[in-house]
Amino acid sequence: MGEQTDGKHDPVRWAVIGLGWFGEIHADTLAGMAGIELVALCTRRPERLAALADKYEVAGRYTDYRQLLADRSVDAVSITTHVNDHREIAIDALRAGKHVLLEKPMAATVEDCNRMVQAARQNDGLLMVGHICRFDPRVALARQAIVEGRLCRILSMHARRNLSQAVGAANLDKISALMGDGIHDADLMLWFTGATPVSVYAQEVHPGTGKYPDCAWAMMRLANGAVGVVESIWHLPNSTPYTIDARMEIIGTEGALYVNCGQAGLEIHAADGLSLPDTMYWPTVFGERFGVLRAELRYFANCVATGKAPDRITPEQSRDVVGLMVAAAESSRTGEVVRF
């Protein structure tokens, strides 16, 4: 999945813009990777900046991302800010000659996505949106089986990606469950089939107190005739022992496959209860980050080092799945099928 580095290229000098929960995970992962130097961090919170910069011994410390982009020692940036800030920061970074790894979703609107796609085409920096599930070996092997024709023609896909109420409480003022997590599985369905959506119908439920709905089901019809259903619920009980309940079923005319990304492979039965910790996405093992995020970062670092445009996920594909989720949210509001 791409951890190797051939040693023929200079280290990629990387910065992280946005030091919330996931920005820290980016920094923590990058700090332990060969062929990468974590050279700068940026957040508007000075105390948070100092704490993490001291932790990772990073010299470049910025509370204004524009000053960071003027730092000529920076080759690439991770942008891990609120989705509504993605467009401005990403476009500014590309114009400053930086390579950009932008956390998903690409943006909140297709218009913003298009502006970033245009900026990437007009400047030299590479742009990739972090659709991490495409780097999960379980998912990648599923796609390989589909590409090899082992299911023949895909008829039906169903995915669920459900998390606890605590996750909802922490995030539903920023983004909906559908856009925040449903976008993962919608993207995989488009990737698996290579088909464009024809229509989508969705329903959302809003039992919590956050700005956006906690629960959603979206059904799409694709141009190849397949149907796909995306279930995204951020309202499981907080006593749920696993980090995430993520599973997908794909049925074709000659076969079926089942991907279980919720199965951790590890159960810890302790005095305080049962837990199934993350063992795949970004686990910390003896003080070092491993997993799928690391594979994604390594892939992009290799693209930067070799000058090869990322093809595991393109900016246009990231834009298109945002368009699908925006249409699903519109369907939920109006109660009508949205056609493309």
Task: Describe the secondary-structure layout.
Elements: E1 12-17, H1 21-30, E2 36-42, H2 46-56, E3 60-62, H3 65-69, E4 76-79, H4 86-95, E5 99-103, H5 110-122, E6 127-130, H6 137-147, E7 154-162, H7 165-171, H8 177-193, E8 197-205, E9 215-222, E10 227-233, E11 245-252, E12 256-260, E13 268-270, E14 273-275, E15 284-285, E16 288-289, H9 292-306, H10 315-334, E17 338-339
Parallel strand pairs: 1-2, 1-4, 2-3, 4-5, 5-6, 7-10
Antiparallel strand pairs: 7-11, 8-9, 8-17, 9-10, 11-12, 13-14, 15-16
Helix pairs in contact: 4-5, 5-10, 6-8, 8-10
Which structural traits does this protein have?
7-stranded mixed beta sheet, Dihydrodipicolinate Reductase, domain 2, alpha/beta, 2 domains, 340 residues, 26% strand, Rossmann fold, 10 helices
**Fourth-level CATH superfamily of the largest domain:** Dihydrodipicolinate Reductase, domain 2
Can you tell me the CATH class of the largest domain? Alpha Beta
Shape: globular
Number of domains: 2
Q: What is the makeup of the main sheet?
A: 7 strands, mixed
For the secondary structure, the number of strands is 17
- Residue share in helix: 25-40%
CATH topology of the largest domain: Dihydrodipicolinate Reductase, domain 2
The succession of helices and strands, N to C, reads: EHEHEHEHEHEHEHHEEEEEEEEEHHE
The CATH architecture of the largest domain comes to 2-Layer Sandwich
